[in-house]
Write a structure and sequence with these properties.
alpha+beta, Beta-galactosidase, Chain A, domain 5, single chain, 8-stranded parallel sheet, globular, 12-stranded antiparallel sheet
């Protein structure tokens, strides 16, 4: 009886457990935990009406006009052009002389004539590509309408060369003779008569021979004939309806809408994805290329392309590097959920921007809607055509390939998984046409900076004394230890609050007073901490009162202490974390995870230490975590400052089934949570510095201070610094974490970019963290770096102390950056709004142009 009772108790417990799980699952779904559609951004352009041109010039219709610009559209090709009244320059969406390009093949010419191209998966997950000109415009399948401030163009994209169903099977005899036979080329009359005969099924109709469907050559001939006579999809629908035949071209028919709106000195291009239609459920658009040749420069033009790789880089027109890989970088960095292998270790693009200087005019573009979906591409003449161009590509659905074979390396069993629901908000890109005589990168930076100020994302700094030293302090690190051969994760205290106070004493004694201290590893089991829902202080690192005392001490000199917190990741062994509902998942349902990119394997998922693995947290549960974190922080810490280590840096998504959250909604969720945190915690130090974090940051670290020197890039510029200097105090990555530390180059980089000195230190030597993932802190022992920190800071502060509130208005390359040289070996001048010029020579030769002399690896300040 006792055994039976125990058995019943076990069964009852199991049933209660299943019931509780069911209630939990229902609760999560019923309250829409994963639904963030209310954040979707859309831009209302008003009702469309009949398009009445405002004028005409050389066959182009004047669609809209502002104080500075005129917008024209070609009614035959839908190519648009913008005339700038201030300098007389015209910007074309498609090069005017495309057909004369001696390099481009017909496919490339079709691409250059198209305002947009897209890729889609068909019902069996095969990729297809469409470009508007050949697949729509050449067939006259578009409509132009007027909207407020501009025009809307609706494209009906039907690909007639995918199947014989695009040709009607029955046509009325009289219509056949007038519309087909009479208008076909006489050389094709014999073929037409051979394939068409009076129908035995329908009186008064001509019927196409069934045998044509089995011969691809004959299919191609018939499609060509109907294409040449200009046969449209509307006619196909009418002829099929007359014969009572149902039209089935679902996977080959799309409706695409583009809006062109003038606003002052800028042109807004809007893609209202809600208005995009797919005739059928089998086709899934996943990629859009927008205006790939807008502003392109030809072989005879002089200019450059600005790209946002790292701090920023310039690609000179016609630089002859067409044998190198084209420039391509995903805005806000790669997605570690779907990307595990990296062709090279690169810096994320923190700004969704590009620029083109074409002869004496300049154009600057940035993404305003759908930023997180964007990729920036740029190329030079000579590869596939004669033009230098840059554009944005948008990924509307994520996809991945799973190998279903038991034999590694085989591809016959690969399965492509596509995100079910695409992004449906608006894709919006703003093209600013830069004013001024011979505008360059300075005017481009001013244009974007002014826009961010107008949006409330940037506010001017106040002059308050010395510049800041950014000092990262390593508190507790999680290391693997053993008891009687049994492994467990323990805490190694690398620095205590008392040690941190000693660091401050040392720096104060040497004239450094303004210190922004980032404390890592202060709670929840160390640097790679548990999920940030609850807070458990590591008492051996710092107690609450010690944190408050240190913070008050630093604040007296405009500094502070910023405890570091991860919200986007958690360690693999995290407590208080339900991975079933809270972990991001890829298309196959597997948990997303990452570690530091290995240069040996070029993988973000390879590590020798399990406690180095970071689970990626589902973006949708971030608000739930913040809900619990804020009261816990108020109770356990109660500081007015915090460091967001990944919320303004790492951008992830979750693409598994109905719980999917795409990158753009993930960005919008991060923005909403940073707003909540800023309301409760006044001072936010944000790592990474993606542009959507500017509005909430009081300081930035880990910002890019060097360009990613792709072989296509000719020279490096501090474009990021030019945008934010004078509005946010910022620093790059810790100088002593550089793989190739060069004390003088680190100093010169700070002087050229305005990035404050930043170092990461610990009281104990790094050997105390050996056999752990924190061996990456290979050079943090304070005693080894204190003298270098003082030297770096004093020189930097002497130069920049009075430049805190000044904007960088221009940046010029005086030597270097030519074809065949390494872009980083440059002589440059950084120009500030008060007239100060900082000349930096990062070459091994003295520079003397008759006006200024700068010794090799030196600098000169002219006030």
């Amino acid at each position: 009886m006792k055994k039976i009772k125990n058995f019943r108790a076990i069964i009852l417990f199991f049933l209660i457990f299943l019931f509780a799980c069911g209630i939990y699952i229902f609760w999560r779904r019923s309250f829409g935990v994963y639904d963030f559609s209310y954040l979707t951004r859309r831009f209302d352009s008003g009702e469309a009406s009949e398009f009445v041109p405002l004028g005409e010039k050389e066959g182009k219709l004047l669609a809209a006009e502002s104080e500075f610009l005129r917008l024209y559209i070609d009614p035959e090709t839908t190519a648009v052009s913008v005339f700038d009244k201030r300098n007389g320059h015209t910007w074309f969406s498609s090069p005017p002389d495309v057909d004369a390009d001696a390099i481009a093949i017909p496919f490339q010419k079709n691409m250059m004539k198209s305002n947009l191209g897209f890729r889609f998966f068909d019902g069996v997950r095969r990729e297809h590509q469409r470009w508007l000109f050949d697949d729509c415009v050449a067939r006259n399948q578009f409509e132009i309408e007027a909207i407020a401030g501009g025009i809307s163009v609706t494209y009906k994209v039907g690909d007639l060369d995918l199947g014989i169903d695009a040709v009607p099977f029955f046509i009325e005899t009289e219509r056949f003779n007038e519309r087909v036979l009479a208008q076909a080329n006489p050389d094709d009359w014999e073929r037409v008569r051979r394939f068409w005969n009076p129908s035995r099924e329908l009186d008064g109709f001509m019927q196409m021979s069934n045998s044509i469907r089995t011969r691809p050559i004959d299919i191609g001939i018939m499609l060509r004939i109907f294409n040449e006579i200009g046969y449209t999809l509307e006619e196909l629908e009418l002829d099929n309806a007359a014969a009572n035949v149902e039209l089935e071209i679902d996977k080959n028919f799309f409706i695409v809408v583009m809006e062109f709106i003038l606003d002052g000195e800028k042109l807004k291009i809007n893609l209202p994805l809600e208005k995009f239609e797919v005739n059928g459920d089998d086709a899934n658009i996943f990629q859009i290329d927008l205006l790939p040749f807008f502003g392109a420069g030809g072989l005879e033009d002089e200019g450059f392309i600005l790209v946002p790789g790292g701090s920023g880089g310039l690609i000179n027109f016609n630089n002859g590097k067409f044998r190198e890989a084209m420039f391509e970088t995903q805005v806000y960095g790669v997605d570690f959920l779907t990307t595990t292998m990296h062709p090279q270790v690169t810096q994320p693009a923190r700004l969704p921007v590009l620029g083109i200087k074409n002869n004496g005019a300049a154009m600057f573009a940035h993404v305003y809607g759908g930023q997180a979906l964007a990729t920036v591409l740029a190329d030079v003449s000579g590869r596939t055509n004669s033009y230098n161009n840059a554009w944005f590509r948008f990924i509307l659905r994520s996809s991945m390939t799973l190998n279903m074979s038991a034999i590694p390396g085989t591809t016959t069993s690969d399965l492509t998984i596509v995100q079910k629901f695409p992004y449906t908000g608006d894709i919006c890109v703003m093209y600013h046409f830069v004013a001024g005589e011979n505008p360059g990168v300075g005017e481009m930076a001013r244009t974007y900076r002014d826009f961010l100020v107008s949006e409330g994302a940037l506010s001017p700094l106040e002059q308050n004394g010395d510049r800041s030293l950014f000092l990262d302090v390593i508190g507790g690190v999680d290391v693997q230890r053993y008891i009687l051969g049994t492994p467990f994760i323990g805490i190694e205290t690398m620095t205590t609050a008392r040690d941190a106070n000693n660091f401050v004493d040392f720096f104060n004694a040497n004239g450094i007073e303004t210190i922004q201290m980032q404390l890592h590893g202060w709670f929840n089991r160390g640097v790679n901490h548990d999920v940030a829902k609850k807070i458990k202080l590591i008492s051996s690192v710092a107690k609450k009162n010690e944190l408050h005392e240190l913070n008050l001490r630093l604040k007296k000199n405009n500094g502070g202490i910023f405890p570091s917190v991860n919200f986007k990741t958690t360690n693999w062994f995290s407590r208080n974390f339900n991975s079933t509902f809270e972990a991001a998942r890829d298309g196959g349902g597997f948990f997303g995870f990452m570690t530091r990119v290995s240069r040996d394997t070029l993988s973000s998922r390879f590590t020798n230490h399990k406690n180095a693995l970071h689970l990626l947290i589902h973006p949708a549960v971030l608000p739930l975590h913040v809900d619990k974190f804020l009261p816990a922080y108020e109770k356990k810490v109660s500081l007015d400052s915090i460091m967001l280590n990944d919320l303004g840096d790492l951008l992830t998504e979750s693409i598994y089934m109905r719980d999917a959250v795409d990158r753009e909604h993930s960005r919008l969720i991060a923005v909403s949570q940073m707003r909540r945190l800023r309301e409760k915690i006044p001072r936010l130090l944000i790592a990474g510095g993606n542009d959507y974090s500017f509005e909430f940051a009081t300081h930035l670290v880990d910002v890019p201070t060097e360009a990613d020197m792709f072989m296509l890039i000719d020279c490096e510029i501090p474009f990021y610094s030019m945008v934010v200097h004078g509005f946010l105090e910022f620093a790059g990555s810790p100088a002593n974490m550089r793989e190739n530390y060069d004390e003088q180059r680190v100093l010169l980089n700070s002087l050229a970019t305005g990035a404050s000195p930043r170092y990461i230190v610990s009281q104990k030597p790094t050997r105390h963290a050996q056999n752990s993932p924190h061996e990456r802190f290979y050079s943090t022992h304070f005693e080894n770096w204190n003298a270098k920190i003082i030297s770096h800071y004093k020189i930097f502060n002497d130069v920049y102390k009075n430049l805190r509130t000044e904007q960088i208005v221009d940046f010029k390359i005086l030597r270097g950056g030519e074809i065949g040289t390494h872009g980083r070996d440059q002589v440059t001048v950084t120009i500030f709004s008060n007239g100060t010029r900082i000349y930096v020579n990062q070459t091994r030769e003295d520079f003397d142009d008759g006006r200024i002399f700068v010794e090799a690896m030196g600098y000169v300040v002219v006030e």
